[in-house]
UniProtKB/TrEMBL annotation:
Binds 1 Fe(2+) ion per subunit. Keywords: Dioxygenase, Iron, Metal-binding, Methyltransferase, Oxidoreductase, Transferase. GO terms for biological process: methylation; oxidative RNA demethylation. Residues 113-216 form the Fe2OG dioxygenase domain. It comes from Actinacidiphila glaucinigra. GO terms for cellular component: cytoplasm. Its cofactor is Fe(2+). This is Alkylated DNA repair protein (DNA oxidative demethylase). InterPro entries: Alkb, AlkB-like, AlkB-like_sf, Oxoglu/Fe-dep_dioxygenase_dom. Fe cation binds at residues 131, 133, 187. One of its GO terms (molecular function) is methyltransferase activity. Pfam families: 2OG-FeII_Oxy_2. Signal peptide: none annotated. The keyword Transferase applies.
Length: 228
């Protein structure tokens, strides 16, 4: 008989915390249903085109605000011009609960109001290179949720794409939060392990990742703006 090896909660760097198995199976199922609907529209999930002509291997759909390199807009001008689906209140609540769990502080979620989420789908070959999440005007934490296949998640430093970095595995139901001194750390997904997810989540294959963020934008704002 095989025993499940418990995976401990890990503070990877100041402000960066991995909480394994945070989402229940029911929560994962509900998120899969919601993400599947968002992937259909009003803006369909797509491979993001990069300014130099490359195409990302990950497929992405956004809610709240649409991200394209390297700005947020309400309408998906690089896809079909439609306004993205609104960011639901239940997801704001989920984001707040995530901060409480990650920082083990009942007040950690107070005032946290994420207004965008990038929903990434990785098939077995998809990867994401080292990058910073820096198109937001806010330094509020990023809340990242994994459903489906396990991946290698590389969490680096705030200076450059190189070492030092830590490689860890994010499995279905895991939460990863990066805020505070780690908010602008470089990070990447160099590998997904196909076939490691549990189809009971509703995801037969691949990896779903949801990153909630605070853009710091309002409807009067467009494009990249310097952080305060
Ligand atoms: O898939 C992940 O775990 C990371 C996603 C990410 O880095 C991003 O959307 O910017």
């Amino acid at each position: 008989m095989s025993a499940l090896i418990p995976r401990p909660r890990l503070r990877v760097a100041p402000g960066a915390v991995h909480v394994p198995g945070w989402l229940t199976l029911d929560e994962q199922r509900e998120l899969v249903v919601a993400c599947r609907a968002w992937a259909m529209g009003p803006v369909p999930i797509r491979h993001t085109r990069l300014p130099r002509g490359g195409v990302m291997s990950v497929r992405t759909v956004c809610i709240g605000w649409h991200w394209q390199p390297y700005r947020y807009t309400r309408t998906a001008d690089d896809v079909n011009g439609a306004r993205v689906a609104p960011f639901p209140d239940w997801m704001v609540e989920l984001g707040r609960r995530a901060l409480v769990a990650a920082y083990e502080d009942p007040a950690a979620g107070d005032g946290y109001t994420p207004d965008t989420a990038l929903i990434n789908f990785y098939d077995g070959d998809a990867r994401l290179g080292m990058h910073q999440d820096k198109d937001e005007r806010s330094d509020a934490p990023v809340v990242s949720l994994t459903i489906g296949d396990t991946c290698v998640f590389r969490f680096g430093n705030t200076e450059n794409r190189n070492r030092p970095y830590t490689d860890l595995e994010l499995a279905s139901g895991d939460l990863f939060v990066f805020g505070g001194p780690s908010r602008f750390a470089y990070h990447a997904v160099p590998k997904v392990h196909p076939g490691t997810g549990d189809p009971a989540t509703g995801l037969a294959s691949g990896r779903l990742n949801i990153t909630m963020r605070v853009t710091g934008l309002d409807d009067g704002s467009r494009g990249r703006a310097p952080r305060a």
